[in-house]
Amino acid sequence: MNNIFIDVDYAQIYKHGQKIGGDVFLLSRNPDNNQIVSTLSDGLGSGVKANVLASLTAHMAHKLSFSPIDLDHSAEIIMNTLPVCKERKISYSTFTIADIRYKENMENIEVNLVEYDNPLSLRFSGPDPISWERTKRELQRAAAFKKEVIQHSSFRMDIGERLVMFSDGVTQSGLGKSLPLGWRLDGVRKFVSEEIKANPDISSRELSRAIVQKACALDGLCSKDDITCVVVYIRRPRRTLVVTGPPFTKEADEVLGEKIRAFQGRKIVSGGTTALIVSRLFNKKLTVDLSCWSPDVPPASKMEGIDLVTEGMLTLSKVATILEKKQNLADLPNDPAKKFVEILLDSDQVHFIVGTKINEAHQDPNIPVEIGIRRTIIGRLRKALEEIYIKETSQEYL
Length: 398
Fold this sequence. Notes:
The protein is an alpha+beta fold and 398 residues long. It is built from 10 helices and 18 strands. The strands form 3 sheets. It has a 7-stranded mixed beta sheet with strand order 14-15-16-13-12-17-18, sandwiched between helices. β17 (349-354), α10 and β18 (392-397) form a beta-alpha-beta unit. The chain starts with a strand and ends with a strand. The relative contact order is 0.12.
């Protein structure tokens, strides 16, 4: 796995009283072209109508970004396709597109950024803001009352740098309440800088959430618009090892122990038999952890040197479902599955060691059929982590 990771994540709060957002964010990776595309679109107004318009724009921008057409030309195509509001004479949707390209070893990370009518994006090297040149292109559409401006820029990002993109729900938060003119770009810039100073290693997920929560607080905890923030962070990867299932032969137990000892990062052991093997190899006591539990999954255990010890198949199946459905962690019970997901989402690279010994307990007909076999569940986990959360995963069998 690479020693550099591109951490992209976002946070969002809908306008107060709405059950669907007018801001739409899409994130995809094309490993064949070493390309990541991040698209944020803000539909005019809020609710269902805004969501439809923003979704149309975001998906169009996303598809064009992966095409051979250059990003600048793609933006023009999108602009010419977007409808114009008959009353206000302005576009029904705005957008920001970040097209990120990199080499095989994650070096030379190049970003093409196109911005149309969203607040200007911010860049940081550590806590220090970075300024850069943008090229402006004016476009006059027949139904619009004024020329519209598309801004395009290209730059290279290095380790420790961040790109922060957001909708106007962030910069306009607090308008007429706590702040007469709203939070504005300068206020957001200062807040981000202070957050990074306080926590230099803050992840994209944590930083985007902090920005969105601050904006909502400025609105008096009653958001006046959809609030969305996206953060791109170039950093060293955070690694997690997931060990599940006993090795095929008893002789391979020692090999498993050496792999766990040598791993640099967080460690999860999933499965009762596997936990007993690791406990014996490390000569560490295994105790039940009753601080987190729910009726859905068995309780976790504690072991020195291991970050999380859980039951096997039921917990893994639950974790896979949470990831696939993109469930909000705040809505989940405080149980081992939630802790498992939290560790995975805070990781960049996840390595699975899968034991191949058949566990006789799983032949019990009372166990639900949908649990499947261990390999199938690990396959679901890897697919969700790679395709939905843009994580890097690897796997080996013992």
